[in-house]
Amino acid sequence: MKYDLIVIGAGPGGYVAAERAGEQGKKVLLIEKSHLGGVCLNCGCVPSKTLLNSSKVYHYATHGEAYGVKSENVSFDLPAVIARKQNVIETLRKGIAGLMKRNKVTVVNGEAKLVSRREVKVGDDVYEGDNIMIAVGSSPAKPPIPGIDNDCVYDSTRLLDLETMPESLVVVGGGVIGCEFACFFGTLGIPVTVIEMLPEICPAVDAEIAKMLRQELSKRNITFHIGARVESIGKADVTFSVKDKKQTIPASHVLVATGRTCNVDGLGLEDVKIDFDRRGIKVDDTCATNVPGVYAIGDVTGKQWLAHSASRMGEVVVHNLCGRADHFRDNAIPGVIYTTPEVGTVGITEAQAKEQGIPVKVGKMPMMASGRFLAENSDGKGVCKVIVHAETNVLLGVHMIGGACSEMVFGAAAMIETEMRVKEIEEIVFPHPTVSELIRDTLIATSH
């Protein structure tokens, strides 16, 4: 059977692309070796946020006195939390399956391999497609640390299914994944140590925001060692060095969160002569590879390690296949860290503007200036930081910590995507009282 589009990988890039193509009347085959939803739904974004929400509820229950609410005998039921997480996953899987059925997308389970520029093999079956989209994602990276194969060592996937709480946790890597897991366990009272090799955690985030995040997380049973290198992992401890001084700390569990690696092995890329390396499959701004009719999206391209980027890339491919000119732009891709406090960021940072020689004005305003934030946060801190072009007054970047940044940052992304000037943003009415209006207030203060 021949298809208009064969999609390999049913994560947030692949299944969204399949859905969009099906909506347009294209004959689509979606191949997935595990479960619909990919890493994001099954062992990444969704389950980790489900756990984080449970820890947040626990924190509210145990710290309610500040808001006039008292509670006693509060406990955290890990098996119940894990069961709820699984229920959320299965509900969303069924939802995706329903979308595929509604849009007449054929779903096949199994491992796919390219056998030609138009053919994909799954088991003993070969499927032909006019176009092929590779959306196979990424996997946790495994650095060459002595002892990394010990039983106490977990990656982010395995840690999501713990049956009992760790006595102590060491997190190797202070990036987004490491900080989110540290926040989850630290909030529950588990002693957590984060070891980060670079001078600051979350290096892709504005330096001032990252420092504030580290300071706020330090209030939740989390100890940070930055500029530190892990030397070895024992059966119940971790040895690391800071400026050549070694330390050994106990750890019943160790999470290795040192990034992810593209899933390029076993796809037959070499046989079809697709241009790729360990950093991912090479694509242009339409997500086309060097082989006509073959596309790649999401993590496997190494461009953007974000679920929403993968979805957008998939849409770009489908739009072009259906006659609508489109291309992927990465100047306004929002990023979120779902810790408490949350971090939301989009556009360039102050440091990037300086590196690129862009003249900018930088404005900042504390979250406490927002009535809504103050009403809902008795002791939390935060800031909204904006980057504006000094000559054109075009908004170039927004970086926030505190409040529901994950729910606000899309507005900033829309402003940057459409190249809005501060004067134009000033004419937008934001609801009051909301934390989001702080973006507008900060911009107005910066331009005057």
Description:
By secondary structure, the protein is of the alpha/beta class. It has 3 domains: 2-140 and 261-321, FAD/NAD(P)-binding domain; 153-258, FAD/NAD(P)-binding domain (3-Layer(bba) Sandwich); 335-447, FAD/NAD-linked reductase, C-terminal dimerisation domain (Enolase-like, domain 1). It is built from 14 helices and 24 strands. The chain has helices spanning 14-23, 38-43, 45-62, 78-102, 156-159, 176-187, 207-217, 269-272, 307-321, 350-355, 371-376, 405-417, 422-426, 437-447, and strands at residues 2-8, 28-32, 106-109, 112-114, 119-122, 125-134, 138-140, 153-154, 169-172, 192-196, 222-226, 228-233, 237-242, 245-250, 253-256, 260-262, 276-277, 280-281, 294-296, 335-337, 343-347, 360-366, 383-389, 395-401. Strands 1, 2, 3, 4, 5, 6 and 19 form a 7-stranded mixed sheet that branches. A 5-stranded parallel sheet has the order 8-15-9-10-11. Helix 1 runs parallel beside helix 9 (307-321), helix 3 packs antiparallel against helix 4 (78-102) and helix 3 runs parallel beside helix 6. The radius of gyration is 23 Å and the shape is globular. The model has no long low-confidence stretch (mean pLDDT 96).
Q: Can you tag this structure with a few keywords?
A:
single chain; 448 residues; alpha/beta; FAD/NAD(P)-binding domain; Enolase-like, domain 1; seven-stranded mixed beta sheet; five-stranded parallel beta sheet; 14 helices; 24 strands; 33% helix; globular
